[in-house]
Amino acid sequence: MSRLMFLVFIVLLWSSTLTASQTIVKTLPGYPGPLPFKLETGYIGVGANESVQLFYYFVESEGNPEEDPLIIWLAGGPGCGTLRAFFFEIGPMQIQYGNYMDNVPALALDPNSWTKVANVIYLDAPTLTGYSYTTNPESVLSSDTKSASQTAEFLRKFVRDHPKFLKNPMYVTGISYSGIVIPIITEELYKGNDEGLEPFVNIQGYMGGNPLTDKTGDINSRLEYAYRVALISAELFEATRQDCNGDYAEADSNNLRCMLDIDEVNKRVGPINIQQILDPDCQPATNLVRGGNPVTMGNRRTLRADPIKMLLARSTLKDTICRDNYYNYATLWANDENVMKALGVREGTVKEWLLCNLDMKYNYGKPSMPQYEFNVRSSVAYHERLTKRNCRALIFSGDHDMMVPHVGTRTWINSLNLTITTSNWATWYVNDQAAGYKTTFARDNYTLAFATVKGAGHTAPEFKPAECFELAKRWFANRPI
């Protein structure tokens, strides 16, 4: 009997039936009729005594679930619920703004769902994110390394409980702050296989969208990006670069010339939306290098203390639409009792679903938040380790993102000293239109494709869903982008 067949046999014995922590969701409030895709929700315990209960949504591929890749998608923050991805980025459903059904926002199918080409796990991680919870107060505090370790543990247990996906190629994917943990998780899965952990997972690589990777370098790159897109003048850019010695994120507060330059920069970019420079700016004034938080939307205050502002259907093109208002629909939907019941959320474990838990969310310059420690400054070293693996990587960036600019992403990619192969800033197309630019790299058995998404902001699939779907579809199928 082969190793793989033996593993399948053992795992089948472990999970001959669905456990009580799994729910097959046939219908959802807000959507008319049965769901036309297979949705499973549930919990998997991780950490000491499995005290951290991670909640997930799992959608089987609508294409060929037996052979399509198995991917996990991680939201940013940290601490942002994965419903953001489910409704606004790569998920099978969209919210119909201004429309209601079953006393909740109405839902419709998303034609650009990545579930058409992949089996997708949407994970609420780390603990106290979304519907995830802990049975032990000592497990509340998480960190970059702890979150990565627990997510790797989750994935190995997931395939143990779903043995029919043991052979599917597995990819660790996500966006924004998850760029810190994605390569750590991926390396941990490879390492676990090397050490003989069971079950063996068919890890093939990873993908990061607008990924925060080198915290200092990514923040520093905002200044160059602002200059490149004509938000600040050449004179101000050069003066700031010289006076601050190229380091703005950690500039010496006693360097008066540098501080004055940074103040001048912030005056210029203050009214600009840092997540999508062409969008209306509905947030407080942008501060380019002081603070700055990938995926800033979300509110920790309760619905009662901070009533949700709902949008009517758009009436005129002159209306200013703030994306924060769109996310409020997800908050309203997720906090409905019937929704929680349909999803199989354990009663009493979550008092209120939050788009993002602000007790975790990253702020540059702070070593920690009440529920999260930012203990990895840069994950580039983990990318370097993965270059020694038989591994595929895709990194993509919305080119209108000033939060984690593509110029900083390209800088750390260049530091890996890979060889450019078939494309060097070549145009890639969707529907015969330029969708962005791509560069492909390789070293031995490692390959990395980097692509910009033209016109997209920080969470690229949210702004350019069709283009990002086509990008992922081609990459998963090992086709040229």
Task: Explain the overall architecture.
The chain is α/β, with parallel strands linked by helices and 481 residues long. Among the domains are: 3-212 and 376-386, Rossmann fold (3-Layer(aba) Sandwich); 215-269, no CATH class. The chain contains 13 helices and 17 strands. The strands form 3 sheets. Strands 1, 2, 3, 4, 7, 8, 10, 11, 14, 15, 16 and 17 form a 12-stranded mixed sheet that branches. It has a 3-stranded mixed sheet with strand order 9-13-12. The protein has a two-stranded antiparallel ribbon with strand order 5-6. α3 packs across α4, α4 packs parallel to α10 and α6 (234-243) runs antiparallel to α7. The two termini are 39 Å apart.
Low-confidence stretches: 1-19, 291-318
The SSE order reads HEEEEHEEEEEHEHEHHHHHEEHEHEEEHH
Q: Mean pLDDT, as a whole number?
A: 90
Strand content: 15-25%
Shape: globular
Kindly report how far apart the N and C termini lie: 39 Å
Structural class computed from helices and strand pairing: alpha/beta
The helix content, as a percent range, equals: 25-40%
Q: What's the CATH first level of the domain at 3-212 and 376-386?
A: Alpha Beta
Number of helices: 13
What is the CATH topology assignment of the domain at 3-212 and 376-386? Answer: Rossmann fold
How many strand units?
17
- CATH homologous superfamily classification of the domain at 3-212 and 376-386: Alpha/Beta hydrolase fold, catalytic domain
CATH architecture of the domain at 3-212 and 376-386: 3-Layer(aba) Sandwich
**CA-atom Rg in angstroms:** 22 Å
Largest sheet: 12 strands, mixed
Signal peptide: 1-21
InterPro entries: AB_hydrolase_fold, Peptidase_S10, Ser_caboxypep_his_AS
GO molecular function, one term: serine-type carboxypeptidase activity
Protein name: Peptidase S10, serine carboxypeptidase, Alpha/Beta hydrolase fold protein
